[in-house]
Amino acid sequence: MLPATFKLCAGISYRHLRNMTGLRRTAAVALSHELEKLALVGPGPSQWINQVRRRSSLLSSRLEEKVFNEAEISYIKQGQEALKKSMSILGEQDGWKVEIVAENGDKVLSKVLPDIGKVFKLEAVVERPLDRVYGELVDKMESMGEWNPNVKEIKILQRIGNDTVITHEKAAETAGNIVGPRDFVSVRCNKRRGSTCILAGMSTRFGGMPEQKGYVRAENGPTCMVLHPVLEDPSKTKLTWLLSIDLKGWLPKSIINQVLSQTQVDFAKHLRSRVAMYSNVSLC
Question: What are the protein's UniProt keywords (predicted)?
Answer without folding.
Answer: Lipid transport, Lipid-binding, Mitochondrion, Steroidogenesis, Transit peptide, Transport
